[in-house]
Design brief:
This protein is about 30% helix and about 10% strand. It has helices at about 100-110, 130-140, 155-165, 175-185, 190-200, 220-230, 245-250, 250-255, 255-275, 335-340, 340-345, 370-380, 395-410; strands spanning about 65-70, 115-120, 140-145, 165-170, 205-210, 235-240, 280-285, 305, 310-315. The two termini are about 15 Å apart.
Length: about 425
């Protein structure tokens, strides 16, 4: 069920300066933007004030990753049309063993890592998940399970909680069963509702994640109400980010400007109404932003992802960058990979930056945006992320957004309204 909803700055168990907040873990994949902090629609200051922890860093002053993203498997019972897993996924035979994952957790803890996000695929597909959680807890890592909930029973939940699980993030595709099951490619919604009720009764952190897109934004208020009713402590409303299988379905997933504007109004109202009862966070879509997010908090700066086979990556889609070799934890220590490997050094600091990033006031805030998105849209991983309004290639993103909004207006006879999704989806398969 893995998805890359937004390039991450930090898990929400850390604040924006890297300070831990153990009461609010989240999906590593999301850069959370509090709706109330958005002045004009999705705009940020061109000359932001300096902030602690924003200074340029090189490999000599980069400490260990704050969080480790452990993609323990690519196997998954869902086939989501927006999955961020790579198009070429790792097979079961290629997965790290239990002992190898435990070694990774122990090495990460020695580097100063505070949180491990167990994700996939569907992490519940691993029969040794209880052992992995117990090992992470023994290493004094905060353990966050990112799951579809499929395969999670009351008995297994009890065992995982007893092993030391701190937090569960349960994904939903919609508030209603029919569209949710369409987006997931299987009948899963009712099973999620059932296990959500069981999770809410446990003394562990509980987040609901709704992935929003053109075909379900009209039900945003229903999603928030569902999170209230299911007893979650936090709800994350996350727009699709267009990597992996989501890139294959982008034409049918990208929302309209009218939908986005309306969703901001709904989120702001919900945030005010539910303050102190349910934490509401919103991840805005890159394609409508004036400036890009800091992908993963900056390349190789705060997060490390280990894929099922043991390859260490600075971000989910990094493998798409050509001529860049990624080391494996089977053959290299985690500390060396983080501190010395060419792949993690590649886009650290500012020497690699092109204009306008090289002299931009925001270069220590967004680090030029997402390297994989720059490659996908501009054909150059070192280019300014084209979602940035200052990018020489921004017209590529503007054209994509204009096509979506023009089609919507035309379909409604000139009225500004979202079009209906009628495309044939390209579904994520399940690796053998």
């Amino acid at each position: 069920m893995s998805l890359k909803v937004a390039p991450a700055s930090l898990p929400a168990s850390y604040d924006r300066n890297g300070n831990q907040d153990p009461k609010s873990p989240t999906d590593h994949k999301a850069a959370v933007v509090p709706p109330a902090s958005l002045p004009a629609p999705l705009e940020q200051s061109r000359n932001p004030e300096p902030q602690p922890g924003r200074e340029p860093q090189n490999s000599a002053c980069i400490v260990g990753p704050l969080a480790l993203i452990a993609e323990i498997t690519h196997r998954c019972p869902l086939h989501c049309v927006y999955c961020s897993n790579p198009l070429e996924m790792k097979s079961r035979a290629a997965e790290l063993s239990t002992a190898q994952w435990i070694s990774v957790f122990e090495q990460a803890a020695k580097l100063g890592t505070m949180q491990v996000d167990l994700t996939g695929g569907e992490p519940l597909a691993r029969v040794d998940l209880t052992e992995l959680i117990a090992a992470a807890r023994a290493a004094k890592l905060y353990t966050n399970l990112i799951t579809s909930g499929i395969g999670l029973t009351q008995d297994r939940l009890n065992v995982l909680a007893h092993a030391g699980l701190d937090h569960i993030q349960l994904s939903f595709q919609d508030s209603q069963a029919a569209p949710a099951d369409e987006f997931a490619g299987t009948n899963a919604h009712e099973k999620k509702l059932s296990i959500a009720a069981a999770i809410a009764k446990h003394h562990i952190g509980f987040t609901l994640n709704f992935v929003v897109l053109r075909g379900n934004l009209a039900r945003l208020e229903e999603m928030i109400a569902l999170a209230e009713n299911l007893g979650a402590q936090r709800v994350e409303i996350a727009h699709v980010q267009y990597y992996g299988w989501a890139a294959e379905n982008r034409a049918a997933l990208l929302p309209t400007r009218a939908q986005l504007d309306r969703s901001l109004e709904i989120i702001q109202a919900a945030e005010a109404r539910l303050r102190g009862r349910l934490r509401v966070e919103y991840v805005v879509p890159d394609y409508y932003a004036r400036y890009p997010k800091a992908c993963m908090g900056g390349w190789g700066r705060k997060l490390m992802l280990i894929d099922p086979s043991g390859e260490a990556l600075p971000c989910h889609a990094a493998r798409t960058i050509p001529n860049l070799h990624f080391e494996n934890v089977k053959t290299h220590p985690l500390e060396w990979i983080w501190q010395k490997s060419p792949s993690f050094q590649k886009f650290r600091g500012e020497d690699w930056m092109q204009e306008p990033c090289r002299t931009c006031d925001r270069r220590t805030i967004d680090f030029g945006g997402c390297r994989c998105q720059a490659l996908m849209l501009a054909g150059d991983a070192a280019a300014t992320d084209p979602v940035c309004s200052l990018s020489p290639k921004h017209e590529l993103v503007a054209a994509i957004v204009n096509r979506v909004n023009s089609a919507a207006t035309h379909s409604m006879g000139g009225a500004s309204a979202p079009i209906q999704v009628t495309s044939s989806w390209i579904y994520r398969p399940n690796p053998s």
